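Module 6 notes. Inverse folding takes a fixed backbone as the condition and produces residue identities as the prediction. Think of it as a translation problem where the source language is geometry and the target language is the twenty amino acids. Below is one complete input and output pair. Work through it position by position during the lab.
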């Protein structure tokens, strides 16, 4: 059964669970609230337009909730404990929302009826959802353990550590679902001990092509401390392929630093790398806030935009807006929008970064930059989905190439949408050269490793305070 069919099976049973719960809740409310008998209830079902509408909307309500919290992601990577915890939590939250929005205005004979409704709703919604899910998950896990379902996997490394990782998988009584396609050679500093055990499918420079050509779903990284410089090339994969799972065999210092998470891949603790910096529900909330706040800003700033447009036009010859190509999410280029703060054709031969005393900046441009007003049209970029309100500042490919030569982990920033403001922007400010870009980079790396809605709120507040106080670089 492929992933699409399996997802449809989960969706089908979630819809059936919702339909049965809706019918049961309607019958229970009629029985408790109106003391109706079964025949009367069945007759009223046919004539009740709200009940019929609920047959359509109530399942959609639950499908939205489950998708919102990321249940249908990584459909083969589930456990029975995950099913219990996730289904219980989402069902409880969803029932509380539904109860307070739709049921609390019911006419009841006693306040205790509300409690009965809520308990009934939660109990049956949970039971009818959980039992099919845990049954399907148990069936799928059994097929994985029997070797009937698996994930194309490669090992990065070729010395004794890679051999140990590979042999650990083979010795497991229950298969972990890994179909090893081959291994990746890293360098010539260690002898190749994987020969005769797996096929060498390429070297580290070709890993992206190997992953694409062999439809790899998991990469097991088995590298010594001296080889950890190659990890950046592996991490770049997961930022452009969100279906890829990466697990790293830990070194002693990784354990001491507490960066190791338990995993069953090699029947031992592993460092798990995930492309999802934010839970699914937080990604929805972040995007929703981007849209709402950007629309609000564009409406409120409309008079200011008119003033700035006139000021730019009168300050020097040239267009009002300045469009410049930047590199965004997953390395995709987009045109960032700014009010023009420099004279026309400020760049001719090659890209040039600006500084505080840059003669190319117009007098009105200096005023705009002082309050960062030239950046405000980027709310349009946020609405288009090119950017977020908070995220690492996007750079041009010309400078990214220079940064990558000295700091290859810059690649990690391409795993999130760039932003109008960022932690690096708050703590460091504008970068006037590549050295300063690299210095600011560490704050952006800290941001993506600590991403949350709360962190975004803090950064937005500090950004506003810095602008109002005319502080920062």
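Target side of the pair, the amino acids:
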């Amino acid at each position: 059964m492929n992933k699409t069919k399996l997802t449809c099976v989960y969706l089908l049973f979630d819809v059936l669970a919702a339909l049965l719960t809706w019918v049961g809740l309607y019958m229970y409310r009629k029985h408790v609230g109106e003391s109706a008998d079964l025949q009367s209830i069945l007759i009223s079902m046919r004539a009740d337009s709200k009940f019929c509408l609920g047959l359509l909307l109530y399942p959609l309500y639950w499908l939205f909730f489950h998708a919102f919290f990321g249940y249908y992601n990584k459909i083969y990577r589930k456990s029975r404990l995950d099913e219990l915890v996730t289904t219980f939590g989402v069902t409880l939250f969803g029932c509380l929302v539904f109860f307070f929005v739709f049921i609390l205005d019911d006419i009841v004979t006693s306040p205790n009826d509300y409690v009965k409704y809520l308990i009934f709703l939660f109990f049956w919604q949970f039971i009818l959802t959980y039992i099919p899910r845990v049954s399907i998950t148990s069936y799928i896990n059994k097929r994985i353990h029997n070797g009937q379902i698996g994930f194309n996997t490669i090992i990065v490394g070729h010395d004794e550590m890679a051999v140990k990782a590979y042999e650990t998988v083979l010795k497991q009584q229950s298969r972990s679902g890994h179909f090893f396609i081959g291994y990746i050679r890293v360098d010539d500093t260690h002898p190749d001990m994987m020969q005769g055990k797996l096929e060498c499918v390429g070297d580290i420079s070709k890993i992206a092509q190997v992953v694409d050509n062999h439809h790899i779903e998991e990469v097991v990284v088995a590298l010594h401390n001296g080889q950890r410089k190659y990890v950046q090339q592996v991490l770049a994969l997961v930022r452009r392929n969100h279906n890829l799972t990466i697990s790293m065999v830990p070194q002693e210092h990784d354990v001491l630093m507490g960066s190791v998470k338990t995993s069953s891949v090699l029947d031992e603790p592993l460092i798990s790398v995930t492309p999802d910096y934010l839970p699914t529900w937080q990604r929805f909330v972040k995007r929703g806030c981007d849209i709402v706040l950007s629309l609000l800003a564009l409406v409120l700033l409309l008079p200011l935009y008119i003033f700035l447009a006139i000021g730019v036009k009168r300050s020097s010859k040239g267009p009002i807006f300045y469009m410049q190509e930047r590199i965004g999410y997953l390395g995709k280029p987009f045109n960032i929008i700014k009010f023009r703060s420099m004279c026309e054709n400020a760049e001719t031969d090659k890209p040039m970064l600006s500084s505080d005393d840059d003669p190319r900046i117009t007098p009105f441009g200096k005023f705009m930059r002082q309050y960062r007003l030239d950046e405000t049209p980027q709310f349009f970029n946020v609405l288009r989905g090119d950017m977020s309100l908070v995220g690492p500042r996007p750079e041009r490919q010309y400078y990214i190439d220079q940064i990558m030569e000295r700091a290859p982990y810059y690649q990690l920033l391409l795993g999130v949408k760039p932003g109008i403001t960022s932690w690096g922007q708050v703590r460091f400010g504008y970068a006037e050269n590549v050295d300063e870009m690299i210095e600011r980079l560490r704050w952006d790396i800290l941001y993506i490793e600590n991403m949350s809605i709360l962190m975004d709120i803090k950064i937005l507040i500090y950004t506003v305070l810095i602008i109002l106080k005319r502080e920062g670089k």
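Reference fact for the lab report: Confidence is low (pLDDT under 50) at residues 252-260.
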